[in-house]
Amino acid sequence: MRITRTVAGRSRRVAVLVTTGLTASALLLTGCSSDSDSSDNTGSDANGKITLTVADFGQFGYKEAGLFAKYHELHPNITVKEDVTSDEKVYYPKLLQQLNSGSGLADVQGIEVGRIKEIVDTKADQFADLSKVIDVNEWVSWKEKQATTADGAVIGAGTDIGPMSLCYNTELFKKAGLPTDREEVAQKVAGGWEDYLKLGEEYKKNAPEGTYFMDSASAMFNAVVSSNAKQYYDESGKAIYKDSPSVKQGWDLAAEAASKKLTQGLAQFTDPWKAGLRKGTIATVACPAWMAGQISINSGDANKGKWNITTAPGATAANWGGSFLSVPKSGKHVDEATELVKWLTAPEQQAAVFKAIGSFPSNKGAYDLPDVKNAKLPYFNDAPIGQIYADEAKSIPETVLGPKDGVIKDSISTQINNMEQRGTSPDDAWKAATNVVDKAIG
Fold it and tell me: Which pTM was predicted?
């Protein structure tokens, strides 16, 4: 995916999407380095040259798409340095510590969608208002609202989003007597995630030995919840995850999948999960846009052409994942950093990132650009991902975010994994999850 992220049920580690129709190598330019520049991170050097630091997590794709190098060409006096933390769970506490102390912040900071509500509610005054610089109407409407304060300040420019699809192994489907055409598969799950489990039961009847219908029930849970406007909080900011219909639906389906042995019980992005993809034991994966790269990388060349992508189960579009770029007010180059953020999140640059690593743009202007509109994945039987994801993105409902979305989602996902791997009963697993969440959110 780019990506892997470990928040909001999603992990983000460095990975590169093999291709998005054309080869990604055309854009894999070398990121700009400051080795030949005598400037430091605190100001300009004697020649008026400055260095802007971008702190993020996992893989945002800017270096891979050659964008830092290109920005240096456009602005010879500016060098951009990226400070990457592989694990968002390590990155975010550090960011909070820096915000609390008022020191150590980069000129530009990445913020995961599972954290943005907490930052908007508690730290917005420490970030520059981007509303006068970016045109929020360029983004899908729900994206920029996530980074907008009650008084209209926009503290983050949207980077990617995660419109949902379904990835499936056509070779395993064929051996199990299921259809392999993406339109036929879409029809089989058109009624929603309940239909998805019914398809799983069909698969199990004739499944090749040692294979499973899905990788992880926790992944399906996140996909189910992500397709609903109300998830873990209500509009007043109250945590409602214990009574949320979407959480109940996702939990019940996950418990059913675990009890019927439709899942291999592999926590995503772990070594066993990667091995399952490589060995071809997984038939389906709930597939936000960034997931295709993870599957292609970990399945390897031997499985190229065995996978395909179709629309997600049900009629409701879903989003799973996404991030923002923000500019701390404490920086010494706030104006220059703001212009960099504006440029990095413009349609052309978001399209370049999509081509390089598969992170789907949140800026609608990118959807009509050839690298997005005409994008296909040869690894996935030339699945028209540009069309699939753009259609999903335009119809995703505005969701209600809460300050501890990531904590809630991770805690529940952990207990779903325990149902799968350890045979923990649904009641005991739910009690354990809620105990952890209640302590975390107070």
Answer: 0.81
